[in-house]
Amino acid sequence: MRISRSRSVLLAGAVAVTLSATALPAAFAAPSSTAVISEVYGGGGNSGATLTRDFVELANSGSAAYDLSGFSVQYLPGAPSAGSSWQVSALTGSVAPGGRYLVAQAAGTGGTVALPAPDVTGTVAMSAASGTVALVSGTTPLTCKTASDCAADTRVVDLVGYGSAVVREGSGPAAGASATASVARAASLADTDDNAADLTAAAPTPVNAAGETAGGGEGPGDPGNPTEPGTVRVHDIQGTTRVSPFDGKAVTGVPGVVTAVRTTGSRGFWIQDTAPDADPRTGEGVFVYTGSTAPAVAVGDSVLVSGTVDEYYPSATTQSITEITSPRTTVLSSGNALPAPVVLDAAAVPAAYVPSAGGGSIDALPLEPSTYALDLYESLEGTRVQIADTRVTGATTAYDEIWVTVEPKQNPTRRGGTLYSSYTDQNTGRIKVMSLDTTRPFPVGNVGDVLAGTTTGVIDYASFGGYNLQATELGTLTDHHLRREVTRGQKGGELAVATYNVENLDALDEQAKFDTLAEGVAVNLSSPDIVSLEEIQDDNGAVSDGTVGSEATLKRFTDAIVAAGGPRYSWRYVAPQDGQDGGEPGGNIRNVFLFNPHRVSFVDRAGGDATTAVAAVRTRKGVTLSVSPGRINPASAAWDDSRKPLVGEFRFHGKPVFVIGNHFASKGGDQPLHGRYQEPSRSSETKRVQQAAEVNTFVKSLLAADKSARVVTLGDLNDFAFSPTMSALTAGKALKPLITTLPANEQYSYVYEGNSQTLDHILTSPGIRRFDYDVVHINAEFADQASDHDPQIVRIKVDGRR
């Protein structure tokens, strides 16, 4: 099992050894028919050398994988002195039967050709002319310095002395090693315990576990490439649970037809068995991971693949991808027909999303593909599938991904998305589509468009989004002409208050971002009287130099609003302490109020700063604030490394209105909906509930001083209307969430992984009785978006009643 494996491998010098899973030889005094060092080269990077690094190669002539856990390759100078010691390079992983394993050692300053990607990298600078290399069961340095003493050490699995080495097997060391020559065993890997007889000098030919050479590529001539199918089939590898029964084991000659090839990123290819079994749980496709080397196969090739089965976990909380790693591939024929794709549509996908494991791992649960959607997708992992005429539920991203649904009637929104309405009612038809075809542009689609015709590809899994379709044939996009909304303007007696997350805006951003955001305020929001902004950064953004002011950022933004036809806004904020409010490092993120001074006035009360708590003050005329602008209990642990709420007192037509701008803690760190732990833990929720309680307590203090106080609490709360966060915020009926006043299919302001959902909210106190509320959809559903959030606005009728 691997978690978060790097998908790129640095080239380095290496060492080759032949191994087997049978019992270790007691000492090298008895010839080994299994584990041997197959090649040693100490001239890497020397003057005249072609290769840039030293290496040792191991090989496995046995019939099963050879586990190298706890093993090491060790090196001793050819003529050891009293001060000489064995230098150790620890090994990991295993060597497949018939396979090779490359240990890269130190690089020199010469040479022009890198080794193939090593299986492990050491730092030992080996001599080109003379030395001893041992394969050792253990990582403790050997102490022997004579041939007889080393022969008596039972930890030594195999040993090669070359040049004039004192420590060697048999009559003498292997001869001929130099800057341009290694010593290597014959193709038979014969071991007679005589280095001089068993190894000969020639140009170095390093081979790694993937069968790659310094010249690149793999081929049927590599050791262990069979020409007849083995006994293990793809459905045996996939098994009836999420984890392969062959995880960590070697397989030989697995047959299949190449159905897709990925030449960028996580390189490799998919094969599918053309003779499936009758069990719907056992998948017939599997990914063959080739690492840093482009696959040397083509779609339609009939192949036999040998390698090691591995469950790759993109992260600690995701499900895994079953793969064959360190592959050796034999191409039997080309141009073969591909298996017919499985049709994914509303009839095929179950209504339930995923089984429960009480918060534990679902890895070991038997798959039930007819009951749970994620079990169905897992049973199809690596298999060809086809979808048709699917509605887009998540716009094309910067990474050329688009979300669609194969269940068009599942929780549709008014504008074509798919609504996420509860923790227990997941949208099972969502799937992310990507393309393996790098020769044509990826379609740019918005929510509500249709990926028309058929899209065919293989099912894969990724940490972001879970199961996805890697398309080999992509449908065409039908534009349904989604338009950005424009809300109505407020009437003379209405106070318009909006919230807008402007996504890390700072003075170093391009003017185009300012202009687009400004148009959203001036045109789409129809110039609200008050705009509570989230994610305003300091004036130099991510530069960490102590800057905390946002004057230049806000000047550019308000200038852009004027240019877009809006009013000249004024602003208020409380600058954070440097580095204390979370967000992008160096950015000093904060909430900000913009207000139109021709329509509404701000009540300034001095004393508000980053560490001073605002308080409700009871007066004969009602409630006022102790400071304005101010922050809610900034010393509370609820706000540690997080954005503090901004509170301001405004007057509209002579009446006080209190506005609280919020940006609660991110949902980052929560386990994914599609992950291995079900039900997923929402660890980030704890802090948001604490923050909501702080705001609720402050609102109640205002209402205790004046039960008719008009309070608008708004912002990016990073949680849903049905969440514990919202329950804590509205406790005691102090606040009313306005999102729930909309029709169900309009209750969203954010789109994530194809789900339309609400993270942004406006809530009002009981003193606000007449209002008109609107979510203005201008960003979240569109591929070209200035922010990933849609703004919201409420128009309040402020009359004589308090």
Written description of the protein model:
The protein has 802 residues and is mainly β. Helices cover 10% and strands 32% of the residues. The chain has 8 helices and 45 strands. The strands form 10 sheets. Strands 2, 3, 4, 9, 10, 13 and 14 form a 7-stranded mixed beta sheet that branches. Strands 32, 35, 36, 37, 39, 40 and 43 form a 7-stranded mixed beta sheet that branches. Strands 30-31-29-28-45-44 form a 6-stranded mixed beta sheet, covered by helices on one side. Helix 5 packs across helix 6 and helix 7 (685-705) packs parallel to helix 8 (724-730). It is elongated and about 105 Å long.
Tell me the radius of gyration.
33 Å
Residues in helices, as a percent range: under 10%
Question: Which regions have little confidence, pLDDT < 50, spanning 5+ residues?
Answer: 1-27, 215-224
Structural class computed from helices and strand pairing: mainly beta
Q: Mind summarizing the main beta sheet?
A: 7 strands, mixed
Distance from N terminus to C terminus (CA atoms, Å) equals 64 Å
Instruction: Report the average pLDDT across residues.
Output: 91
Overall 3D geometry?
Answer: elongated
Number of helices: 8
How many beta-strand segments?
Answer: 45
What amount of the residues lies in strands? Answer: 25-35%
